[in-house]
Specification:
Radius of gyration: 41 Å
Number of strands: 8
Distance between the termini: 120 Å
Shape: elongated
């Protein structure tokens, strides 16, 4: 009986202790709930008080300067002709001259004809019968600025024209889109505006120059990054939804078409 009684006493004491701790546990839970609610309200208040994301400071635009290289040499200036003549006279003085028979044999070996004159052999060597092609072309004579067969002794640059009064003539360009590099923006806009038939090689991943201006009525300025590209082949297929005209122009012609502030920004990038 004593053992049974001690067991009952132990059980009673455990139950009493549990009854004492239950209210304390409920109070702790209530305290935690109040603290969590307070934290949630604090977070909500902080989120409401947080400032909104500010608008961008400027609009980013990627542009391409497409360059067609000269295909003939420019006429030499007088100083260069005089220098070459002086150098030739110097070579005559210091260079040992071969016998005349050597030059005569060379002329006889080179003197030939393709049969265009009835099979008769021409006595003049080919270098005396050579006639250089004219530097000017039909496109130069007609003023066709869309042709690449003009200004053959100069660099040409592709300009496009938008239907607007301000900055109408410009290089192929367009706004940056999320996920793009700026060079990718320039490549995409060149394709969209001038067609897939125009093949060019982009010289670098980095822009050569940038230009900033604020269009009329715009809230933020526009920052244009220019990438240089070399013309390879093909022709321009103008996008009529975005552009109204295009032209291949020299540096001096670009100075007359571009806005003065734009030309001032890119002129050191352009070659004559």
């Amino acid at each position: 009986q004593s053992t049974w009684g001690s067991s009952l006493a132990s059980v009673a004491s455990v139950m009493a202790a549990s009854l004492v701790r239950v209210p304390a546990s409920r109070a702790a839970v209530a305290l935690c709930v109040r603290r969590a609610a307070g934290s949630a309200s604090s977070v909500a208040a902080a989120s409401k008080a947080a400032p909104e994301t500010p608008p961008p400071a400027f609009r980013v635009v990627g542009a391409t300067i497409v360059q067609r290289f000269p295909s003939v040499r420019k006429p030499a200036p007088d100083w260069q002709i005089a220098r070459e003549q002086l150098w030739a006279r110097r070579n005559e003085l210091v260079t040992r001259k071969l016998p005349d028979e050597v030059y005569l044999d060379r002329r006889r070996a080179a003197a030939s004809d393709d049969g265009a004159d009835g099979g008769k052999k021409s006595k003049a060597p080919f270098w005396d019968r050579y006639e250089a092609a004219p530097v000017t072309s039909e496109a130069d004579a007609s003023g066709d600025v869309k042709s690449l067969q003009r200004a053959l002794d100069s660099n040409l640059y592709l300009l496009v024209k938008k239907q607007r009064a301000e900055h109408a003539w410009q290089f192929p360009q367009g706004g940056w889109e999320a996920g793009e590099t700026i060079r990718r923006t320039a490549e995409r806009e060149l394709l969209e505006e001038c067609g897939a038939g125009l093949k060019s090689y982009f010289v670098s991943n980095a822009p050569s120059v940038h230009f900033e201006y604020t269009p009329s009525g715009a809230a933020v300025p526009t920052r244009v990054f220019f990438f240089r590209a070399w013309y390879l082949s093909g022709a321009v297929a103008l996008n009529p939804k975005e552009l109204v005209d295009y032209a291949w122009v020299t540096k001096n012609e670009a100075a007359r078409l571009l806005a003065p502030e734009l030309y001032a920004a890119v002129k050191d990038t352009l070659d004559h």
